[in-house]
Amino acid sequence: MKIKIILPLFILLLSNAVYSETILVKKQHFTTEDFTTVSGATLPKVDIGWESYGKLNKNKDNVILITHYFSGTSHAAGKYKADDALAGYWDALIGPGKAIDTNKYFVISSDTLVNANWHDPNVITTGPASINPKTNKPYGLDFPVVTITDFVEVQKRLLDSLGINKLHAVIGASMGSFQALEWAVRYPEQVERLVHVIGAATMDAWTVSALEKWAMPIRLDKNWQQGNYYNKERPLAGLTATLLNITQDAMHPLIYNASFPNFEVLDDGALQDIRTLPKVNQVLEARALAKAKLQDANHILYLVRASQLFTAGRSANLTDALKKVQAKTLLLPATNDLLLRPENVRNMDSIMDELGKEVTISEIAGGWGHLDGLFSIAPKAQQISEFLAN
What we know:
By secondary structure, the chain is an alpha/beta fold. The protein has twelve helices and twelve strands.
């Protein structure tokens, strides 16, 4: 069977074709004012989109917060319309009778600040492409640097507005795992359970440098113009190259190569003209360009920086940060992850175990690499369900 690559990625969207009931969801809008970032700037207004699945109980203590990955959105499960081609990215896990059972739990997810998908009509976010009220023009690079902590603080304001002050669990994959861990460190008394999927506890030099390779093509695009491209030609070439880098970094060579069963290294077009890309690159570039049209290049740069600056609790000492965690913790790294390598999470597990924390680590097996956090997570469904129930 031929496997298709769909761009872009920290994680690919997963079809719900083999799963049962898919719920219909509605995107909602939250606004907050006078939000001060970790970098010290105050945004007069912040807008984010959010959606929920299941019902909030009377005591408001059945809440599970889902925090999304780098190029993701709040659309974690269900469909906006019955005829949507795909359900939310974790529809395999979230829904009636599923591992994250919406018959029991009120599940909520929100778009982050500087969400990548600025041009997606189902995304609501504040970032460089938003209008700066001081100038009535897009912020561009005048938008302040934001951090994973800022993402968490906006989410907390959303939950506060709903009267929610206790989380049954916080669950996130990839960049979402950063946010989930930050919740458990920053608000330990409010987080009862933490599920940390294909993530990390802190960035290292290798990962920070690897992430900069995602930013570089955008910065080198002649149309980027130091971020001042709004109402002008967009830096789509650079953004397309960035998405190609993200996809390859997120996939293990095993599945990447299997995606091109008819690949031929002897490519006549590439042989005859240096300007002609090999066929495999032509296919990938076309798909990346289609996705790039839904995203904003500056937003990607800000997401890269937020990820580069991540360490749990914004602490220079990881052990000191993890001391604060009170949540029962389930760590789910992917054994073949080449992007956020599992040794980072194994170290986190060792530290938490030495601290006497209630922690379990269970590695996800598979050939997708980083993307095993989606495509190979089904065997962990029962474990997740039992973890949430106990």
